[in-house]
Every structure is written in structure tokens, then in C-alpha cells.
């Protein structure tokens, strides 16, 4: 029996078109920010399609939390790579990113004067994020914090996160969880670790690391030699994608510092785009598409979007081939179990703030969230159906209120 468990791995290889189809649906329906995205991914890739198990998924989340860049996008890229190789990672990124990138680029051209932040359907999409994240917390806690020690790590992490809600605080708590796991979680509490088969060689991983650091260090030098605007944009957005930890909203001040002082955008344009980014599904890093479109139309949108996500490809391709060997070591596995318990705690804290506090503003909102949770947990409906239901419910609540 133990041999069967230890050989569990991602389901047989798929095609890039399969990855593209699934990730595109997620890109069209994954509202609510990075924490909600991870919940959507777990429901689709782990619970419904069983491309990988809960333990392997949580280990991937832990890895991406340590890497700079957009963690949820990196998890999607990693799953795509494991499913269909490097092209699968690209397909996963395109599907998850393209819908919001196109929407924000179009917004830059057309409707930047329209305020949709208070639309009822948009609030309904915020409400469904409560149900999605609650479902993920429930499922992950049963797998990653099933005993007293790990449950305690998760709860203490959640409490501290509520009082220290910063990217640095999260990284510190994850590291602390790993140290506690390494020191105090007994071997009996460390389950057998399924193998992750990664169709990327270690030589290719080394090439990815060389490219990552080569561009990070070389682009500023090229920018001094060549004054082309596109090169300056590529350098600025690549550097932001390489150095930002925490992802999501943490990227905003770094982007503002890159595009407003040089005069590429005004503060008003920047804030307008940020408001629009809250209304679209997918990763907040696609805000780069809006910024690029304002600066230089569609070519600018493409350059900015590709350059801010490019470091994530290098980092994931460089880390995955070594990750499975590292994560399967008994001592590291004990540490990783502490880390995963901390991740559950961070997710639990995020369920309250910002997910709950921004979405549940009335008894009607709470009722809609309960209905969405029931459709997910009891009726087992696909998340995209529940998203549409909640958008319609939010619009109805807005009309009746």
C-alpha cells in the first residue's frame, strides 16, 4: 500500500490544448485576488480533474510563496509545465492571463472615464470569492492541518497574520512554520510524499537561471547604451516582476515608481487603471497591460505584460526540476509540513480580511455567500457556474436595495 502511495503523481501527460482550455476558463472566472485564485486552482486541478494531489499542490504553493513574482500565476504555470512541458506552462499562462490583459488594454483605449467599481454584479463576484476561499480553507485544512500540532500552527499563523498583514510578515510566518515543523513535527506526522514528475531537465533549469539573472543584470546596462523606449519599458517591468515579493497589490507601488516619475503615465491614469484591474478576473499583474496600452497602444501592452511575467517562467522552470528531490527529503518534508500548516493559516486570515470584510456588507451578501458555498460544497457545481450565479445575485441585490 505504501508503495502505491509513494508513486502517486500528476495524472498522465496531457496536451497544451487541454491545459489552454482549462486555464482559459479559470482566467475568465477567477475573481477575488490571488488567495481566491489558489482556491479556484485547487478546486479545478486537484478536486475535479485530479491532475495532482492535495499534498503536491500545497507544496507547489509553498514553493511559489518563496519565489518573487505573482504566486498564483506561478502555481498555474508550474501545473501547466508538469502537465504538458514548457509549452504547457506557456499555455497555462496565456489562458489565465489573456482575458484580463485584453480587457484592461481595451479599457485603456475606451472606457477609462467609466466607474464600474460600485456595480452590483461586480460585488457579487467579490461575494463568491468568500465561498471559494472558504471551500479551499476547509479542504486544505483537512489535508494539511489534520492533527493538533499542525492545526495549532495554522491558527496561530492566522491570528498573527490578522495583526501583521504584510508581505514580509507572511514570508516570516512561513519560514517560522518551517522551522517549527523541522524541530517539532515527529516523523509519524510526516506523510509519504507523492512524486512530482517534471518534464524539464536540470540542464534546462540551469539555462533558465542563467537567463533570469542575465536579463536582470544585463537589461539596465543595455538601457544605458540604447535609449529605445521599448527597451526601457521591458527593463522596468522585468525588474518589477523579478523583485516583488508578495505579488498582488504589493506590485502597485513598484509599478507606480517605474511609470509615473518618468512621465510615462500620470497619477490619474495610474489610479484609473488600478480601479479597472479590480473588476477583471485573473492576476493583478495584468495591470501591466493597461499601463503598456496607455504608453504605446497594443505593442506597449504586449511588451509590458510579457516582460512582467517573464521572470516567473524562468523561476519556475529553474526551480521545478530540483524541487521534487528537495521536498522528498524527510527533514525537509517535516519542515514543509509546518510551512503548509502556515499557508493554511494565512489563507484562513485572508478569508476574513480582505475577502470577507470587503464582500459581506449586509445580510443579503451573507445569504448569497451561503448559497454559493452550498452550490460548491453540497451540489458540487463547477466554480464558473457559481461565479455566474453570484454575479446575477449581486446585480439583483443591487436592484432591490
Keywords:
disordered N terminus; 16 helices; globular; 0% strand; mainly alpha; 401 residues
Written overview of the protein:
It is found in: Cell membrane. The chain crosses the membrane at residues 86-109, 121-140, 152-185, 205-225, 237-255, 301-322, 334-352, 359-378. Belongs to the chromate ion transporter (CHR) (TC 2.A.51) family. Its main location: membrane. It is a multi-pass membrane protein. The structure is a single chain. By secondary structure, this protein is mainly α. The chain has one domain (14-111, 118-401). Helices cover 77% and strands 0% of the residues. It is built from 16 helices and no strands. The termini are far apart.
Task: Give the SSE map.
Layout lengths: L1 H5 L9 H14 L4 H15 L5 H13 L4 H39 L10 H25 L3 H16 L3 H18 L17 H24 L3 H15 L7 H9 L7 H11 L9 H41 L2 H30 L3 H15 L5 H18 L1
Helix pairs in contact: 2-5, 2-16, 3-5, 3-6, 4-5, 4-14, 5-13, 6-14, 6-15, 6-16, 7-8, 7-14, 8-14, 9-10, 9-13, 10-11, 10-13, 12-13, 15-16
Number of helices: 16
The helix/strand class is mainly alpha
Low-confidence stretches: 1-10
- Describe the main β-sheet briefly: none
Shape: globular
Distance between the terminal alpha carbons, to the nearest Å?
Answer: 57 Å
Task: Give the total of domains.
Answer: 1
Strand portion: under 5%
The helix/strand order is HHHHHHHHHHHHHHHH
Oligomer: single chain
How confident is the prediction overall: mean pLDDT?
A: 85
Question: What is the share of helical residues?
Answer: over 70%
Number of beta-strand segments: 0
Radius of gyration: 21 Å
InterPro entries: Chr_Tranpt_l_chain, Chromate_transpt
Pfam family, one: Chromate_transp
Family: Belongs to the chromate ion transporter (CHR) (TC 2.A.51) family.
Subcellular location: Cell membrane
Amino acid at each position: 500500500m505504501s508503495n502505491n502511495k509513494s508513486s502517486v503523481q500528476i495524472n498522465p501527460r496531457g496536451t497544451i490544448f487541454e491545459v489552454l482550455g482549462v486555464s482559459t476558463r479559470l482566467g475568465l472566472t477567477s475573481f477575488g485576488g490571488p488567495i481566491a485564485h489558489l482556491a479556484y486552482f485547487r478546486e479545478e486541478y486537484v478536486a475535479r480533474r485530479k491532475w495532482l494531489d492535495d499534498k503536491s499542490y500545497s507544496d507547489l504553493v509553498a514553493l511559489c510563496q518563496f519565489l518573487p513574482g505573482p504566486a498564483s500565476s506561478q502555481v498555474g504555470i508550474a501545473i501547466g509545465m508538469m502537465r504538458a512541458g514548457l509549452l504547457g506552462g506557456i499555455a497555462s499562462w496565456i489562458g489565465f492571463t489573456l482575458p484580463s490583459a485584453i480587457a484592461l488594454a481595451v479599457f485603456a483605449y475606451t472606457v477609462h472615464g467609466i466607474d464600474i467599481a460600485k456595480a452590483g454584479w461586480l460585488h457579487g463576484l467579490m461575494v463568491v470569492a468568500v465561498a471559494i476561499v472558504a471551500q479551499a480553507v476547509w479542504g486544505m485544512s483537512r489535508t494539511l492541518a489534520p492533527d493538533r500540532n499542525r492545526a495549532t500552527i495554522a491558527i496561530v499563523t492566522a491570528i498573527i497574520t490578522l495583526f501583521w498583514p504584510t508581505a514580509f510578515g507572511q514570508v516570516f510566518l512561513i519560514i517560522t512554520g518551517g522551522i517549527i515543523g523541522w524541530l517539532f513535527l515527529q516523523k509519524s506526522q510526516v506523510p509519504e510524499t507523492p512524486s512530482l514528475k517534471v518534464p524539464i531537465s536540470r540542464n534546462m533549469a540551469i539555462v533558465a537561471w542563467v537567463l533570469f539573472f542575465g536579463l536582470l543584470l544585463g537589461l539596465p546596462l543595455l538601457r544605458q547604451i540604447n535609449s529605445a523606449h521599448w527597451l526601457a519599458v521591458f527593463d522596468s517591468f522585468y525588474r518589477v516582476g523579478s523583485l516583488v515579493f508578495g505579488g498582488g497589490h504589493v506590485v502597485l507601488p513598484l509599478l507606480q515608481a517605474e511609470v509615473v516619475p518618468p512621465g510615462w503615465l500620470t497619477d490619474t491614469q495610474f489610479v484609473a487603471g488600478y480601479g479597472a484591474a479590480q473588476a477583471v478576473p485573473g492576476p493583478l499583474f495584468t495591470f501591466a497591460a493597461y499601463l503598456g496600452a496607455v504608453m504605446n497602444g497594443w505593442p506597449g501592452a504586449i511588451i509590458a505584460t510579457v516582460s512582467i511575467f517573464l521572470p516567473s517562467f524562468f523561476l519556475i522552470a529553474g526551480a521545478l526540476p530540483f524541487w521534487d528531490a528537495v521536498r522528498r527529503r524527510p527533514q525537509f518534508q517535516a519542515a514543509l509540513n509546518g510551512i503548509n500548516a502556515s499557508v493554511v493559516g494565512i489563507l484562513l486570515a485572508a478569508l476574513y480580511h480582505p475577502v470577507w470584510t470587503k464582500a459581506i456588507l449586509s445580510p443579503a451578501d451573507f445569504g448569497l455567500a451561503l448559497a454559493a458555498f452550498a452550490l460548491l460544497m453540497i451540489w458540487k457545481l463547477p466554480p464558473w457556474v457559481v461565479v455566474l450565479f453570484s454575479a446575477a445575485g449581486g446585480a439583483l441585490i443591487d436592484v432591490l436595495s
